[in-house]
Amino acid sequence: MRYIEFQKIADTIETLCISAAHELPEDVLTALQEAAKKESQPAAAKILNQLIENAHIAKNEKIPLCQDTGIAVVFVEQGSQVCVSPPADNEQATILDAINAGVSSGYEKGFLRKSIVGEPLNSRKNTGTNTPAIIHYSIVPGDKITLTLMAKGGGCENKSQFRMFKPTAKKQQIINWILDVVSSAGADACPPFIVGVGIGGNFEMSCLLSKKALCRNLNKRNEDEFYAEIETDLLTQINALGVGPQGLGGDTTALACIIETAPCHIASLPVAVNIECHSHRHKTAIL
Predict the structure, then answer these.
(1) Which of 255, 261, 271 lies closest to 163 in space, CA to CA?
(2) pTM
(3) Which of 56, 87, 210, 270 would bridge 196 by S-S if both were Cys, CB 3.0 to 4.6 A apart?
(4) What are the sequence ranges of the domains in the chain?
């Protein structure tokens, strides 16, 4: 059995929070650059080039890519042969506590905006730490821990949707609904988008799949040719909507459409769409 110290996890999450806020992933930056070269509308091309310049400034000057530094969403894959050593002063602390400690210190040291309210409907008082994080935890084979942190902005998250289709629904019905979701997101969600789609599972699993899809490299297609073809077709049809960068028109409404699937009940066909803005901030560390 391998042991990883509590503080090592907290320090890693702290670093991921800060680096994610400042550095656009290379695949996203490349997608923006390629879109700018192909964009036929001068105004849209100008906006794309401004987004690229913004990314370079944020990285070089260590300032956030966006003022909304997001809610911290953390995917944890803990190997079955690895344990977390709790701190001496709190033997009951878990990996979840380490992650929240890292988020708190990362947002404080990185001078990142803290956007979490502790209670959703009544007082809505800011927690002042950007915690608690949203943590998705799973156990996998091996002796390593993989931590993927996504800083998810509120504007794009608010435009995400879920729908339970009848199991008799046709492929085109689902495609048409996804197009409606993206179209209705419009300028409010800061296009060009990355569109995560979750198909299958159940109510909550489809939503989780759509969020998890956003962590995939933009150049990697679904391993199933059927869904890979839908990803390609959807991206073409989304860009034909003409929403364009920042909703001002153009050829580039989305940079990628990514689908993840899971088995589901014979009577169900859940589908979720998670909209991500152009400031697609996520980082991964393996311990």
Answers:
(1) 271
(2) 0.95
(3) 210
(4) 2-19+65-152, 154-280
Burial 72-107 (b: 16+ CB within 10 A, else e): bbbbbbbbeebebebeeeeeebebbbbbbbbbbbbb
Across all residues in the chain, what is the average pLDDT?
A: 97
* 36 residue type, one letter: A
What average pLDDT does range 64-77 have in this prediction?
A: 97
What span, in angstroms and rounded, lies between the C-alpha atoms of 206 and 268?
11
Please spell the DSSP secondary structure of 83-147, one letter per residue: EEEPPTT-TT--HHHHHHHHHHHHHHHTTPPP--BSSTTTT--B-SS--S-EEEEEEESSS-EEE
Residue 19's φ and ψ, nearest 5 degrees, are -70, -40
User: Minimal CA–CA distance to 74: which of 4, 155, 130?
Assistant: 130
Inter-residue contact 187 to 248 (CB < 8 Å): yes
Asked if 102 contacts 20 with a C-beta cutoff of 8 angstroms, the reply is: no
For residue 164, what pLDDT is reported? 98
Contact by Cβ (8 Å): 183, 241 = yes
* pLDDT given for residue 122 in this prediction: 96
pLDDT in tens, 154-190: 999 999 999 999 999 999 999 999 999 999 999 999 9
Q: How many CB atoms lie within 10 A of CB 210?
A: 26
Q: Which two tokens stand for residue 238?
A: 């989304």
